Each structure stands twice: as C-alpha cells, then as structure tokens.
C-alpha cells in the first residue's frame, strides 16, 4: 500500500472520512502523516486519536513559503510519502513541494469548479443564487483551485437552503467521493508504475 499524507487546516471531516475508509478497506492506503498549519485545529485531535503522526507548523514563524515547504518536503521524503491529499488545507502549495510531487497531489473543493473557487465556496454559491453546486476533486497546481479536474458531482440547492444544510449535503458527497476517487488514482498509479517497470526490463 502507498503511504499518503493528508494536509488539513481545520475540523478535518474529510480527513476522518479517509481514515474511516482505510479502516473498512474501501481505501487501500497507509495514512502515514497529517500536515497541519494551524495549532489548535481539531483535525490534530482526530489524527492523535487514530495514532497518525502529525507534522505541525506555524507559517508565521518562517520568512517565506519556500522556507517552511523545504522542511515539510524533508519530512515527506523521510516518511516515504508517495501521494498527497489536501483536505481543507487553506494554503496554496508552492513549487518546492509541487516539483517533487508533480501529478501526485489532489484537492477536494466544495463547488463545481471553475465556479466559486477559493474561500467560502458554499457562501459564494448561496449568494449567487444558483440552483446547484457540488464537489470537485482536482489535481493541484500553482493556482487557486485551477488544477486539472478529475471528477465532479453536483449537489442541488433547495429554495430554503441554509449554509448549514448545504454544508451537510456537500460533506455527505465529499465523504463518499474522496475515498473512492483516491482509491482509483492509487490503483492507476500502481498499475502505471508496474507497466513502466516491466517495459524497462
């Protein structure tokens, strides 16, 4: 099984969904590390409860992104991390990590990108008055939710929808879609790696 790291900044509901999927075998991976940029974030408690190592850092203690990403990258390499899943990580990934993990970093976003990128996508969709939003899983590049889309699933918005009710609906989709999609990506990655090794012989 591949070692994966999850980057998260907040409550960690998608982190927990991935952990639970590993427990029941629908996600065949080893969640080897949580990377978190916010001391006190609830996701840290979730990781500790699951005995998953945590790499916690405070970006304010570094002069620039490359400084803390160099340290993160060293930790990822040390722990043989092969794939990265962002789950509510509120920072753009910089070139230091992107270059090393090209094509091996994915993110989940609560809208049908390219609509409503960035912060508070749920609030953005409600303010816009659209009839549906959804969930997008995409590869990560240097932009704000601009990477190649892998899969999307629509979520209808009711006339009397509230932020809280819409969040519940979106998270229900996220918690099923993210583990399933990651499993497909890991299967493809393993298959591709095997083919490459065979062709090299």
From TrEMBL:
Span of domain Formyl transferase N-terminal:
2-181
Q: Where does (6R)-10-formyltetrahydrofolate bind?
A: 65, 90-93, 107
Q: Which reaction does it catalyse?
A: N(1)-(5-phospho-beta-D-ribosyl)glycinamide + (6R)-10-formyltetrahydrofolate = N(2)-formyl-N(1)-(5-phospho-beta-D-ribosyl)glycinamide + (6S)-5,6,7,8-tetrahydrofolate + H(+)
Q: Which GO terms describe its cellular component?
A: cytosol
Q: Which Pfam families match?
A: Formyl_trans_N
- Give this protein's Gene Ontology molecular function annotations: phosphoribosylglycinamide formyltransferase activity
Q: To which pathway does this protein belong?
A: Purine metabolism; IMP biosynthesis via de novo pathway; N(2)-formyl-N(1)-(5-phospho-D-ribosyl)glycinamide from N(1)-(5-phospho-D-ribosyl)glycinamide (10-formyl THF route): step 1/1
Presence of keyword DNA damage:
no
Stated EC number for the protein is 2.1.2.2
Per the Swiss-Prot or TrEMBL record, the active site comprises 109 (proton donor)
Q: Which UniProt keywords apply?
A: Purine biosynthesis, Transferase
Coiled-coil features, chain-numbered ranges: none
Which GO BP terms, alphabetically?
'de novo' IMP biosynthetic process
Q: Does the keyword Nucleotide-binding apply?
A: no
Gene3D superfamilies cross-referenced by the UniProt entry: Formyl transferase, N-terminal domain (3.40.50.170)
Chain positions recorded as N(1)-(5-phospho-beta-D-ribosyl)glycinamide binding sites: 12-14
Which EC class heads this enzyme's classification?
A: transferase
Known SUPFAM superfamilies for this protein?
Formyltransferase
General function of this protein: Catalyzes the transfer of a formyl group from 10-formyltetrahydrofolate to 5-phospho-ribosyl-glycinamide (GAR), producing 5-phospho-ribosyl-N-formylglycinamide (FGAR) and tetrahydrofolate.
**Family per record:** Belongs to the GART family.
Write the protein's name.
Answer: Phosphoribosylglycinamide formyltransferase
Lineage, top ranks: Bacteria, Bacillati, Bacillota, Bacilli, Bacillales
């Amino acid at each position: 099984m591949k070692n994966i790291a999850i980057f998260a900044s907040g409550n960690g509901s998608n982190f927990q969904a991935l952990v639970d999927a590993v427990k029941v075998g629908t996600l065949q991976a080893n969640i080897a590390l949580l990377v978190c940029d916010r001391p006190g974030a609830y996701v840290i408690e979730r990781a500790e409860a699951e005995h998953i190592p945590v790499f916690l850092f405070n970006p304010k203690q570094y002069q620039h992104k490359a400084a803390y990403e160099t340290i993160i990258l060293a930790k990822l390499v040390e722990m043989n991390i092969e794939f990265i899943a962002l789950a509510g990580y509120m920072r753009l990934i910089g070139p230091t990590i992107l270059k090393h993990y090209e094509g091996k970093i994915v993110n989940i976003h609560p809208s049908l990108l390219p609509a409503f990128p960035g912060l508070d996508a749920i609030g953005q969709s409600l303010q816009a008055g659209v009839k549906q939003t959804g969930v997008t899983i995409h590869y990560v590049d240097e932009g704000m939710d601009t990477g190649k889309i892998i899969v999307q699933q629509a979520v209808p918005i009711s006339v009397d929808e509230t932020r809280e009710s819409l969040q519940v609906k979106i998270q229900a989709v996220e918690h099923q879609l993210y583990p399933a999609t990651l499993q497909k990506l890991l299967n493809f990655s393993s298959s591709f790696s095997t083919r490459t090794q065979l062709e090299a012989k």
